[in-house]
Amino acid sequence: MSEGIRLLRPDRSQIQLEVVDLDSQLPADHYARIVWAFVETLDLSAFHARIKVRDDLPGRPASDPAVLLAVWLYATVEGVGSARAVARLCEQHAAYRWLCGGVPVNHDMLSAFRRESGALLDNLLTQTLTGLIAEGLIKLEEVAIDGTKVRSRAGHNSLAARERFDRIETAVRQRVAKLKSELEEDASSAERKRRARTLRVATERAARIQRAREKLAQFEAEKAERAKRDKRAAKTEAKVSLSDPEVRQMRMPDGSVHPGWNVQVATAKGFVVAIDPTDRRNDTGLAPDLVENIRQRCGVVPETLLADATAMTIDDLVTLNATAPNLTVYSPTPKEREDISEAGQRNRESQRKHEPKVVQQWRERMASDAGKEVYRRRKLTEHAHAKMKNRGFGRMPVHGIAKVRSVCFLHAITHNLMHAHGLRRVST
User: What is the reported pTM?
Assistant: First the structure.
């Protein structure tokens, strides 16, 4: 070190008294404040009802569900999906500490809240949509539906065909049997607890393997059925994920193939009005269920529905007309061969004359310039997909469709919250 210079050196052993005012840590327009103001408007009685600690019962007070919900919503805004990462931020980051306000939060608590709140978050999405409709921000005159592929938490290495699956299943079964015998041996209390934890983990894996066996049999049967129509399907083996048996291999938007989910999203005026993850590789036949989802959430059926060509079939049109006769569907007609004979053309025209009236009207509508112009607005639904994926929706942080559904609800609620905030800010 150079001589003669004077430096202030750190003294980490010095005792300091710090006065921290959490409220002064964040500016007035911080997103954390917006999230908390939103949560305060919600009816969280259903979350409170499941808390067992009461005035006349023993036990320490539970952490406020409003805090856990607000922390998860703000983490979703920031694109953080790991419960452990969120728990660390609650200790270190000013915005998360402000949201907690001294309420204890750990990763187990956060993970359990997200895992066990699927039905409650479902109802919460409905509650928030009702408020947005009453405010006039959402109008269900026109709804666009589209599916988006989302990578699962399971990776390629978790996939196993029949031979590898049988080998792993045998090894897991032997592992469980060995751990059970070790647990029965005399050991200290601490050692028995350790063995019991190890056995519990192995038993859970064995149960997951059993679910995977059932799924593998289902996938093999489906592949055998496809092979009857397309011989190429017989060239590859059916595979199942050992860590997430419900997930399937899917082709992603970039052309790559990964274990993933096909999430159906319905939007109106930029807001997500329905969201449903599926293990279906394509959108065929999923439109009627999504329309029914909208009806249950919002109490009405949209006047106009914009759907992708793969999501709407002729049978779907007939089904929707029976349940929602006032719904007008805009969806491209299937491509047909142009190089057909005159006899073939006459046969095609004859068949169309006998089609249901709703199908004939749909063909006429989509052949017109006005119909094509209306359908072009369907691409606006991609904006909601992009915004959610910018917040981490591109890959699921959890296993199992039930947990995936909870994550979807969190993203839908967060997207609607931020979209509404943007519209209100522009209008003022």
Answer: 0.89
